[in-house]
Design goal:
Blueprint (H helix, E strand, L loop, with lengths): L8 H14 L19 H13 L5 H14 L4 H6 L10 E3 L2 E2 H18 L2 H7 L8 H16 L19 H11 L24 H9 L10 H12 L10 H8 L8
Antiparallel strand pairs: 1-2
Helix pairs in contact: 1-11, 2-8, 5-6, 5-7, 9-11
Length: 262
């Protein structure tokens, strides 16, 4: 792994170049980020970001197809669908791979509870002082899981969010937070202020992990929380205010040609 003192100029130039190449508006139409970008109200954006990122694994075309199907089930009106509890009448169906209507109902019951009290996920994060947390994404996942549990008679559902915060890379929530928090006005929406871009972590999956290893950015074989923390800490040395910028570079170098999603 790259030592604390050495990131070669050539490597930084490659990462900067690839991130800039991928981080452009042409990326949007083939990526799940297009769905939260369809809305203008903060609650609609947040709910769509959280739900679409939760089913973002596998082939990007299939993911986008199923994100559209999920939004259609909610009448393309996610906030009102949640607040009117219309999900209780949702027929049983498959939404994406191993994510079913029962999982969506579980998720939306918890979101109804959050929005009923806080009005937005951003305010939920602010009320829980996530701007002061070094591990804000994992703390947010714990807090949301607590709300889901309360709204579902004490039951958990790992199809909504991971449950093992000590181990999970939290890839999908880290991706949703990149959408919500980064503020360069190109692909990501930058609608949150409860946490800062400096607090973001790289959404780590198999492809990003393999690319990072091939570049010498990490050595650990497991794609887990510790590896996410190590990789992001290395990238923060180049952009401490915005380490998730390099998510685009790792995508461009290692994933784009495979048709998978971040």
């Amino acid at each position: 792994m790259i030592t604390d003192s050495v990131i070669s100029p050539d490597l930084q130039a490659l990462l900067d170049s690839e991130a800039t190449r991928i981080n452009n508006t042409g990326f949007i139409d083939s990526d799940p980020v297009q769905f939260p970008r369809m809305f203008t109200s903060l609650p609609d954006i947040e709910i769509t970001a959280l739900l679409t990122s939760s089913i973002a694994w596998g082939n990007r075309k299939m993911i986008c197809r199923d994100c559209e199907k999920m939004l259609a089930l909610m009448g393309h009106d996610p906030y009102n669908y949640v607040m009117e509890e219309a999900y209780e009448d949702l027929p049983d169906c498959n939404i994406h791979r191993t994510f079913f209507a029962s999982n969506l109902r579980h998720f939306l019951r918890g979101l109804h509870r959050i929005y009923g009290k806080y009005g937005s996920l951003n305010e939920f994060a602010r009320a829980n002082c996530l701007g002061e947390c070094a591990d804000a994404p994992w703390r947010l996942a714990e807090l949301i899981n607590g709300q889901l549990r309360e709204a579902n008679d004490g039951r958990d559902d790992c199809r909504c969010l991971p449950l093992n915060m000590q181990q999970t890379a939290l890839k999908r929530l880290n991706m949703a937070l990149r959408w919500l928090v980064r503020r360069d006005g190109i692909v990501d929406l930058g609608v949150w202020d409860a946490i800062t871009p400096a607090q973001l972590y790289i959404p780590l999956d198999v492809h990003v992990g393999n690319t990072a290893r091939s570049l010498g950015l990490i050595e650990r074989k497991a794609n887990d929380r510790r590896t996410v923390e190590q990789l992001t800490e290395t990238l923060r040395r180049m952009r401490p205010e915005d380490p998730a910028f390099y998510d685009y570079a790792l995508f461009g170098i290692g994933i784009e040609s495979k048709g998978t999603t971040k």
